[in-house]
C-alpha cells in the first residue's frame, strides 16, 4: 500500500464557479504613479517657478549694472576732485613764490645775479617751471584786459591799437589758470591820427582821380 505524502499534491480550495486565475494573488498597484493630469500640472508649476526665477535674475542683473555705473561715476568724480584740489594747492604755492621770482628778475636786470645766488635762483625757476608755472607778457603785444593790468597810460603816434609798450611786472599762469596778470604800461594811438590818415588817403585818391586825361 502506497503512502501519500501530504501537502505536495494538494491544491488550494477554489470556490465553486471561480476560475483558476482567481486563486492567484493580484499584484498591488505601484505607489507614486501619478495620473497624466497631475504631471501636466507639475510641469506648469515648474515653468511658472522658472519664469519667476528668470525675472528675478534679470532684475538683480539690472541692479548690479546700475550700481556698477554709479560706482564708475563716483570714481570719476573723486579723481576729478582730487586733481582739482591738487591744482589749487600747487597754484597757491606758486602764488607765494611770485615775490621771490620778481626779486630774481630784478636782480638779473641789474646784473646782480652772480655766484651761488645765481645757481639757487636758476634752480628755483626750473622747479617752478616743472610744476607748470608759465611767465607771459611781452612788449609790443596788444593789450588784453583779461591777462594784462594797465598801470600806466600814454599816447603814441606809431601804434594803431592799444599796445603794451612796457612790462612793469610779468604775468604768470598755471595751466589755464591766470595766477597774476601782467602789469604793463600801455599806449594808445594819438587822438585824430586815424582821421588824418583817412583824410590823407582820400586826398591821395582825389589826386589819383584828378590825374591827366588820356588823349
Automatic annotation (TrEMBL):
<feature type="compositionally biased region" description="Basic and acidic residues">
    <location>
        <begin position="197"/>
        <end position="215"/>
    </location>
</feature>
<dbReference type="InterPro" id="IPR000740">
    <property type="entry name" value="GrpE"/>
</dbReference>
<comment type="function">
    <text>Participates actively in the response to hyperosmotic and heat shock by preventing the aggregation of stress-denatured proteins, in association with DnaK and GrpE. It is the nucleotide exchange factor for DnaK and may function as a thermosensor. Unfolded proteins bind initially to DnaJ; upon interaction with the DnaJ-bound protein, DnaK hydrolyzes its bound ATP, resulting in the formation of a stable complex. GrpE releases ADP from DnaK; ATP binding to DnaK triggers the release of the substrate protein, thus completing the reaction cycle.</text>
</comment>
<comment type="subunit">
    <text>Homodimer.</text>
</comment>
<keyword id="KW-0175">Coiled coil</keyword>
<dbReference type="Pfam" id="PF01025">
    <property type="entry name" value="GrpE"/>
</dbReference>
<keyword id="KW-0963">Cytoplasm</keyword>
<dbReference type="InterPro" id="IPR009012">
    <property type="entry name" value="GrpE_head"/>
</dbReference>
<keyword id="KW-0346">Stress response</keyword>
<dbReference type="InterPro" id="IPR013805">
    <property type="entry name" value="GrpE_CC"/>
</dbReference>
<comment type="similarity">
    <text>Belongs to the GrpE family.</text>
</comment>
<keyword id="KW-0143">Chaperone</keyword>
<feature type="region of interest" description="Disordered">
    <location>
        <begin position="1"/>
        <end position="41"/>
    </location>
</feature>
<feature type="coiled-coil region">
    <location>
        <begin position="43"/>
        <end position="84"/>
    </location>
</feature>
<protein>
    <recommendedName>
        <fullName>Protein GrpE</fullName>
    </recommendedName>
</protein>
<feature type="region of interest" description="Disordered">
    <location>
        <begin position="185"/>
        <end position="215"/>
    </location>
</feature>
Amino acid at each position: 500500500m502506497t503512502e501519500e505524502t501530504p501537502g505536495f499534491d494538494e491544491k488550494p480550495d477554489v470556490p465553486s464557479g471561480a476560475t483558476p486565475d482567481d486563486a492567484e494573488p493580484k499584484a498591488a498597484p505601484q505607489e507614486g504613479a501619478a495620473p497624466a493630469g497631475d504631471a501636466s500640472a507639475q510641469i506648469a508649476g515648474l515653468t511658472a517657478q522658472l519664469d519667476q526665477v528668470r525675472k528675478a535674475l534679470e532684475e538683480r542683473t539690472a541692479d548690479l549694472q546700475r550700481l556698477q555705473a554709479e560706482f564708475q561715476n563716483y570714481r570719476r568724480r573723486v579723481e576729478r576732485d582730487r586733481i582739482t584740489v591738487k591744482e589749487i594747492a600747487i597754484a597757491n604755492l606758486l602764488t607765494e613764490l611770485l615775490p621771490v621770482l620778481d626779486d630774481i628778475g630784478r636782480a638779473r636786470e641789474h646784473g646782480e645775479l652772480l655766484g651761488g645766488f645765481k645757481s639757487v635762483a636758476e634752480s628755483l625757476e626750473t622747479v617752478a617751471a616743472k610744476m607748470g608755472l608759465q611767465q607771459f607778457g611781452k612788449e609790443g603785444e596788444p593789450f588784453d584786459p583779461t591777462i594784462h593790468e594797465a598801470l600806466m597810460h600814454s599816447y603814441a603816434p606809431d601804434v594803431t591799437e592799444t599796445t603794451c609798450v612796457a612790462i612793469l611786472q610779468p604775468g604768470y599762469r598755471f595751466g589755464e589758470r591766470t595766477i597774476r596778470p601782467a602789469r604793463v604800461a600801455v599806449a594808445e594811438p594819438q587822438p585824430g591820427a586815424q582821421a588824418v590818415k583817412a583824410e590823407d588817403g582820400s586826398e591821395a585818391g582825389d589826386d589819383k582821380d584828378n590825374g591827366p586825361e588820356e588823349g
